[in-house]
User: What shape does this take?
Amino acid sequence: MSFESNTTVWLTDPSPTSNLAYIACTITSASPTSLTLAPVAASNDTGWLDDIYDDNLITLPSNPHPTVFPQNPPLPPNAPAITDLTNLPFLNPATLLHALSERYEKNDIYTATGPILIAINPFEKLPLYGKEIVDT
Assistant: This one.
């Protein structure tokens, strides 16, 4: 898959000091031989991008590049959450982690990926089950 300018993507985080797996970026220019990415401001909260990338632009030597994954478009504000990740337009390691992270923040700890159920331990009690279900 080749990428075009103004496309939002995930870039595998090359920094050994960051705790991010992927950086949200926008492609500022694309050619058959290179991609130039601008990290989204939210990824730069800690300032570490300033230390690594000159002017916060990242140039990669090929299009497509094996460390770049397409992002899914954001859901409309009142749209129901996607509970089965196979319904996403793009399912790759970055979109999977992003969707699970967003669901975890909302205490939606169960997510399907086709016939596979992914459960994330919230490390706290959640009001998911009533007494009847717990007692059975």
